[in-house]
Amino acid sequence: DVEIKIEVSESRSLSVNVFLVMTQQEFTHVFSISEKQVNLSRLRDQFLQLEQELGYSIRGFQYNDNDIWEIEAMGYLEELESIKEKLFKLKENEKSDDKYIIAAKVSRISKDADKLGGNERISGMLEEYMYRKKMVAEVISQVDFDKDSLVKTLQKIESSESTFIKSKNASVVQNKVDQLYDLHLKALSNTTSYLIERFIDYKGLSEDWFKDYRAAKSIMKMADKTLEEEKFSEFRRQVYSISHLLKDVRAELNKDFKGTGIG
Length: 263
Known about the structure:
The protein is mostly helical. The chain has 11 helices and 3 strands.
């Protein structure tokens, strides 16, 4: 037998008492409905992710001439930006209600943004997901390095497919599209023909493009030799190293790569 006692106080606190007759054990817990826990670090991460997603959405609407959706998304972004300064000035131990107010606003904007464009937008995003998935699978089938790892990453994305398709949640679908985009770039950067193309591009760049042009030139000289000798694995590391010396970090071929390729 189990005895359960539930009480709600005038301050809306919920008290639950559970007594197990056979073992004579008693458990009590109080839940405060008004009590909220806001982790500032997590809230800032959510804010930055939502800010980025809205930026992507606006560019997508501009590309497809969806003026109404673009205006709505820009409105959400402006509202989000209006609380940015206050959010990033807040301290974890601050006693004010500002962080609760901001958390509620971020949550509300996120939900509203997810509904933007309705089923039509979701359908378009799912079409893009399917297209990107097919394209990534084709590239992975032709890679020269880390094929097993890339296949496993694609399978992991696909494993939750039925769930996120049914959810019709724009943020979730966009996240999967972004994962496929990143995987596509990673697959390309493990393909020798693509690496050769990038290497030729890097050799044609001026000194202003690099953080350390002297180091880049040194690695390029070694890469020329390893390419001539068809040491493709070593050549790949050297091309990665050159990409890491570019001032534009978005051009890095493999952000997980560590090392200089020198020596």
